[in-house]
Write a structure and sequence with these properties.
The complex is a heterodimer. Chain A is 47% helix and 18% strand. Chain A is of the alpha+beta class. In chain A, strands 3, 4, 5, 6, 7 and 8 form a 6-stranded mixed beta sheet that branches. A two-stranded antiparallel sheet of chain A has the order 1-2. A two-stranded antiparallel sheet of chain A has the order 9-10. The relative contact order of chain A is 0.13. Chain B has an 11-stranded mixed beta sheet. A 6-stranded antiparallel barrel of chain B has the order 1-2-5-4-3-6. The longest helix of chain B has 28 residues, at 340-367. Chain B is of the alpha/beta class. The chains are: A alpha+beta, B alpha/beta. At the A-B interface, strand 2 and helix 13 of A face helix 1 of B.
Chain lengths: 353, 530
């Protein structure tokens, strides 16, 4: 649509304890006018996913996706940059709001735990920005500040802090948190392995195949690849090393490591990328990582169908927001039918694309 | 969200139970709706029409199809393990129910005056669909008086009795169709009993297999399938003598003899056939060149008399119609023992006679003459095994008279009811003349399609329902019922044959009998000394 973008995000948590099954949903529908609309929509989705995972108390929490890409990818700050975001947020709200953001997230996590359908505002960052803009509306105009960049930064921080809560909670309760992706395009694993002097397969080539492609084509059997321990993520290092964000975000994530491995749960089944975050203070070695992976694989195997964890199939089927959904949403919000400028051609409304 | 429990069904402020809401595109005759529980096929629902500032008005609709879907268990999921996993993870949570309903009429006109008035515009998507409760349905289906008799109860609402309009049955005719064992005879029995005993009606039932007992209790009158020779028409004689159209020479001689004998017909009725034979003998003497042809006819006539004289063709047969078909009774013609030709002639004979006398009665009463002639009351005639006497592939005498009754009977108060288990073999013209239909279980697709082509109101969806009807359940269509209804026909309290023989018990009985006999016999056999 012209000037605006419509998004719909939906996160679904499926929890099973023996024969008791619980379903939880968190989602949002809205319109963004920002330039980086896809970035915002993606960040909104990631926040919803993290929060819904946070509301589960399973012994094993499986999240669809990759925690590394969650950390590397600074959405919705991609085109804005962290520096500009920080500056804009400082101007608009001051960075101290992140402290109250964290408090409110904790509060919200408590509410999410209680209900299956959450009808409150899913994003604290939005509340903060609205507050700032209504109270200081005039001032924003005068200083010529950059509300989109400020908003983007606060959303990004909300994403990281939600993730922090999820990591904190699962680790402190001794539960396992595992990220599983089935269509990763990452080449990280083989590149790192090569750097460690182990693999020479793709040396000297600028663009090698993805890790997933290699494991899918060169292996068949059940098992897992040598665990790779990812110690640091670039994006985290660009966060301020002083001030309130240092303690809240940077220091915390610098203390998080990730076990990365590729596994196959069933003969000839699909290859899955497994990422298991851990606290560096627990001193995970390659051999102890193997034990962790085995343990996780054992837990997953019982819940799998054709080598893929069944809950993820169900989640995947039930969270899809289709184009038809969006069109219906647009009609019910009154966005469609809208002026298209093409009425003279008899096109009274445009389908969303 | 958890499913709605039955105690917390959503109700609107009129305390109606909301079954669901209309979705998708609607039309004036069909709606699709999502429902909180699977709608039952054949169930009635009330579709809400509201909006544009108008007060809510309800239309009665019948559920014709019902579906349950689950996006998790789409048809691509072919592995049982997947399904069991989905069940373990509460996959039924996302089940949805879809119903499709056909809009039949505004509910208010139907309930107040029994008038069908179909909406001419569609209801709105999102409008509520209510479950039709017994009070509303009783107003529509259990109307009393006005020549109605009870036939059963609604299949999906056993507390709602259903009555049918007998005036509409007699004036617009009826077909009762079903495979054997689906409850045809019982349906006929219930109808006959109630028409005769509740309304004082007159019925003629042609019973091809002698299966009906005293269907109307003491008001049952069994009629022997006999024809008075003097009342035999020329065409009936042709049929009995197997003189088809190709035998035109033989027919001509018989016609001549018949005409000559006609003069003496009423002076000595019992001698009528003898008279014809004498005339034929005279002819054979005159027409020496065609002597053999005439004697062939004569021979056939002699064969006929040898076979049927006294048994079917007899001067003891009633000479007045009221003697045979007693007004106010269920008159049952037992045709089990006679051949198809004879049955054809007998049925034709009485139907023809009846129609003629009814015409006479209507004409004379219209003139207002002091003494009315003809048969005094309207009659519903029922032809069992109608595919035998009214086949689609050849002409019979019954077919021509039945066609005539179907066309003209309305004006003279002669109704036609065809009963058959092979609708496909039934004459299409006759079948399509029957506006009312009671269709019980029908399995053969050819039969179903044939019935559909002969009835305006049988939709594809109802047609699909036919093979799954239980014994005694029927779809009622036509003017006898305000809207199509799926009915559990009452069980007749009278003795009606036609039930299946319990084969193994019959065998057992025979074996037992044999055993007893031999036991008896063994007493008389000397045992050898020990």
């Amino acid at each position: 649509m012209r000037d605006t973008s419509l998004y719909g995000v939906k996160a679904y948590a499926l929890t099973r304890h023996q024969s008791t099954v619980r379903h939880k949903y968190l989602g949002d529908v809205g319109v963004v006018t920002m330039a980086n609309a896809p970035g915002f929509a993606r960040a909104f989705r990631e926040i919803c996913e993290t929060k819904i995972a946070l509301s589960s108390s399973s012994r094993l929490v499986v999240v669809d996706g990759s925690i590394i890409s969650l950390l590397i990818n600074p959405e919705p700050l991609t085109r804005i940059g962290i520096k500009r975001g920080l500056q804009a947020a400082e101007d608009l709200t001051g960075l101290d709001v992140t402290v109250s953001l964290f408090d409110k997230l904790l509060e919200q996590a408590g509410e999410l735990e209680k209900v299956d359908l959450y009808y409150g505002e899913p994003f604290i960052s939005r509340l903060i920005l609205e507050e700032a803009l209504t109270v200081r509306g005039q001032a924003v105009e005068k200083t010529g500040s950059d509300p989109e960049a400020a908003y983007a930064l606060i959303v990004f921080i909300e994403k990281l802090l939600s993730l922090r809560l999820l990591l904190d909670r699962t680790m402190s309760e001794g539960r396992r948190l595992v990220y599983i992706s089935k269509r990763s395009r990452s080449k990280e694993y083989l590149r790192k392995l090569r750097a460690a002097g182990d693999g020479r397969f793709f040396e000297g080539r600028v663009s090698g195949p993805t890790d997933m492609a290699v494991f899918s084509n060169y292996t068949r059997a059940t098992g897992f690849s040598e665990p790779l321990i990812v110690e640091e993520v670039e994006t985290i290092k660009t966060l301020p090393s002083e001030g309130v964000l240092r303690g809240l975000v940077r220091d915390y994530f610098e203390n998080i490591g990730i076990i990365l491995t590729y596994v196959r749960l069933a003969q000839d089944g699909p290859v899955l990328k497994l990422e298991i975050p851990f606290n560096k203070s627990s001193r995970v070695s390659t051999s102890s990582a193997r034990e962790v992976i085995k343990e996780v694989m054992d837990m997953l195997a019982g819940e799998s169908h054709n080598g893929y964890p069944y809950p993820l199939i169900q989640v995947d089927k039930l969270v899809k927001v289709t184009r038809q959904d969006l069109t219906q949403i647009a009609f019910s919000l009154g966005i469609l039918p809208s002026l298209t400028g093409r009425e003279v051609l008899g096109e009274w409304y445009v389908e969303l694309d | 969200m958890s499913g709605m429990s039955s105690s917390t069904k959503p109700r609107d402020n009129g305390n109606r139970i909301i079954l669901g809401y209309i979705i998708g595109e609607t039309s004036h005759s069909k709606v699709t709706f999502t429902a909180t529980e699977p709608p039952r096929v054949g169930e009635y629902v009330l579709v809400s029409y509201a909006g544009n500032g108008r007060p809510e008005r309800l239309a009665l609709a019948m559920v014709e199809a019902s579906f349950i879907g689950n996006p998790l268990l789409s048809i691509e999921e072919v592995k049982p393990e997947f399904v069991s996993k989905a069940q373990a993870y509460g996959g039924e949570m996302v089940e949805y129910n879809i119903g499709r309903a056909r809009i039949l009429s505004w509910a208010d006109t139907l309930a107040e005056s029994g008038v069908v008035e179909t909406p001419t515009y569609p209801p709105r998507p999102g409008a509520p669909v209510y479950r039709a409760d017994a009070d509303v349905l009783k107003k529509i289906f259990a109307r009393e008086g006005g020549g109605r008799v009870r036939i059963g109860v609604l299949v999906n609402h056993r507390d709602v009795p259903v009555s049918v309009d007998v005036n509409a049955i007699v004036s617009r005719h009826l077909a009762i169709l079903a495979i054997t064992g689906a409850g045809k005879s019982n349906t006929v029995g219930v109808l006959v009993d109630r028409i005769v005993n509740d309304l004082g009606g007159t019925i003629v039932l042609f019973d091809m297999h002698n299966e009906y007992g005293e269907v109307a209790g003491e008001n049952t009158h069994f009629v022997e399938a006999k024809i008075h020779p003097a009342r035999l028409t020329l065409h009936e004689l042709f049929r009995l003598l197997h003189l088809d159209e190709k035998a035109h020479v033989q027919r001509r001689f018989l016609r001549q003899a018949y005409r000559s004998a006609e003069n003496t017909r009423y002076q000595k009725p019992e001698e009528f056939l003898k008279e014809i034979m004498e005339e034929l003998e005279n002819l054979s003497e005159k027409k020496t060149s065609k002597k053999s042809t005439v004697s062939e006819v004569l021979e056939k006539l002699e064969d006929l008399l040898e076979e049927y004289w006294e048994r079917v063709i007899t001067p003891n047969a009633p000479i007045s119609l009221e003697e045979a078909i007693v007004p106010g009774k269920a008159n049952i013609f037992k045709l089990g023992g006679v051949s198809e030709e004879v049955a054809d002639v007998v049925v034709h004979h009485y139907l023809n006679w009846l129609l003629a006398e009814r015409k006479e009665y209507v004409a004379s009463s219209r003139k207002g003459e002091g003494k009315v002639k003809g048969y005094p009351v309207p009659v519903l005639t029922i032809i069992e095994e109608a595919h035998i006497l009214l086949p689609g592939d050849r002409s019979t005498m019954t077919k021509s008279i039945a066609g005539k009754i179907a066309r003209e009977g309305r004006k003279f108060g002669v109704g036609l009811c065809l009963v058959s288990q092979r609708p496909k073999k039934l004459d299409e013209d006759s079948l399509s003349q029957t506006n009312n239909k009671i269709i019980l279980r029908l399995v053969e697709p050819g039969d179903q399609k044939y019935v559909q082509s002969a009835s305006e109101t049988l939709s594809d969806e109802l047609l699909e329902l036919l093979p799954s009807l239980n014994v005694g359940e029927a779809i009622l269509l036509g003017m006898m019922t305000p809207v199509p209804a799926i009915v559990k026909i009452d069980k007749s309290t009278r003795k009606i044959g036609g039930g299946d023989i319990v084969v193994h018990e019959e065998w057992k009985r025979y074996v037992e009998m044999g055993r007893k006999l031999s036991e008896e016999a063994s007493k008389y056999i000397m045992m050898p000394d020990e």
